[in-house]
Amino acid sequence: MASQSLPVETPEQVVHRLAKSGRAAQRVLAALPDQAKAAALRAAAGALRAAESEILAANALDLAAGEANGLSNAMLDRLRLDPARLAGIADAVEQVAGLADPVGQVIDASERPNGLRLSRVRVPIGLIGIIYESRPNVTADAAALCLRSGNAVLLRGGSEAVHSNRAILAALASGLTAAGVPQAAVQLVPTQDRAAVGAMLAAAGLIDMIIPRGGKSLVARVQADARVPVLAHLDGICHTYVHSAADPAMATAIALNAKMRRTGICGAMETLLLDAQFPASADVIAELLDAGCELRGDARARAINPRILPAGANDWDTEYLDAVLSVAVVDGLEAALAHIARHSSNHTDAIVTEDAAAAERFLAEVDSAIVMVNASTQFADGGEFGLGAEIGIATGRLHARGPVALEGLTTYKWQVRGSGQTRP
Questions:
Q1: Is the CB of residue 107 less than 8 Å from the CB of residue 412?
Q2: pLDDT at 3 over 60
Q3: 11-233+398-416: what fold?
């Protein structure tokens, strides 16, 4: 008698099954004391270090496939792991363990004239879905931040990092479960079927929030199709404005670092604005060109150096994520603010100046999640802000802005304490 095969789950069924088990695990996780969550994360960090050879071997498979499939250098850089980067991932998990637990923090408290005592207290959001591409470090960062803030997480990584993500999750899970965390608190969607993404986006009532991390097409799809609240940024079109009163050496160093330190991250500068009265624009441009950066400029910028290519209309709205930079010459602070208001993606924008009044006006009027004075936009990072590993940069106006770390992964509830009051 022929045996009957078991029915194959659809992507929708897989997501629903994982989400239900994740919600059940989250209720257990939310009740764990601070010390238990911290100890579990330290165990997970140790497991990542112990699994170095397995994780790097898995990453080598992904890199080979990525090169064969023609991934860009920027994408390959995001994907690549080496001993130093993997050690950094483990260190980041351990750093999250050392952060203060936001759950239970009293945001504010008051007493009403009738004697009712009110307080707002931080609580976990619930089950968070993370949809991401290329960056295998997101697997560890998301797991650590969600767990530390009392949330369960359902991860859906991109196919280009499938082997790396599975190896990292296996190591994390071994450390977490050994320390008493429910296995379903951190889960990875096992299928690369794109329908799984649609199932996550439609899982209202099961998944409490979606965070996308990836290219413009992924984030645009998530924002357009989600029936679940989304925390995201679409582009990192970051500007650096070199004011007329900028120190030339500082301006050169900041511009070079903001563009060329790592070109493939969302905090990389994509447009350089040079004040027409700044005396050392030629030096800044020469340093960038000599470092191997392709510059695309307006007519006034091209007049400074003939190696600058003409900029097209779309260049001012392009996140290159590569060694390519748009350059424009502007007539003063007012023109710089207007350009940024028109083209910024509200991620990170910076001014370089020794003029305190200009700096304060820039801070007040640029409507971005992160606004900087005399610093490289590459500091737009949760770790650099002292928040530990970040789960992303939010550029919207609701709930959280800028690097999203533990506090951004909580909501709050009102607690009301009375002594028998009734409402007249």
A1: yes
A2: no
A3: Aldehyde Dehydrogenase; Chain A, domain 1 (3.40.605)
Q: At what angle do helices 34-50 and 162-178 cross, to 10 degrees?
A: 130
Query: Measured between alpha carbons, how far is 422 from 424 in angstroms, rounded to an integer?
Result: 6
Q: What's the CA gap between 300 and 2, in Å, rounded? A: 78
16 — pLDDT class (breaks 50, 70, 90): very high
Are 15 and 227 a contacting pair, CB within 8 Å? no
Kindly state the tokens that stand for 377: 């936009």
Residues of the chain with CATH 3.40.309.10: 238-379
Question: Amino acid identity of 146?
Answer: C
For the segment 269-322, what is each residue's pLDDT rounded down to a tens digit? 999 999 999 999 999 999 999 999 999 999 999 999 999 999 999 999 999 989
In the chain, list all ranges with CATH 3.40.605.10. 11-233+398-416
What tens digit of pLDDT does each residue of 243-256 get?
A: 999 999 999 999 99
211, with CB counted inside 10 A (0-12, 13-18, 19+), is buried
- Taking the CA atoms of 274, 381, 294 and 233 in sequence, report the sign of the dihedral they define: negative
Cα separation, 69 vs 58, in Å, equals 17
Rounded CA-CA distance 318/341 in Å is: 15
Is 238-379 in CATH node 3.40.309.10? yes
Amino acid letter for position 371: V
**Helices marked H in 69-136:** 73-79, 83-97
Q: Catalogue the E-assigned strands of 100-214.
A: 106-111, 117-124, 127-132, 152-156, 186-188, 209-213
Q: Which of 90, 13, 17 is CA-nearest to residue 47?
A: 90
In the predicted model, is pLDDT for residue 2 greater than 60?
no
Q: What residues pair up with 186 in beta bridges, in sequence order?
A: 153
15 touches 200 (CB < 8 A) = yes
Residue type, 221: R
DSSP string, 321-381: -SSEEEEEEESHHHHHHHHHHHH--SSEEEEE-S-HHHHHHHHHH--SSEEEESS-GGG-S
3-state secondary structure of 326: strand
Residue 38: pLDDT over 60: yes
Positions of E strands within 133-185: 152-156
**Which pLDDT tens digit goes with each residue over 337-393?**
999 999 999 999 999 999 999 999 999 999 999 999 999 999 999 889 888 667 888
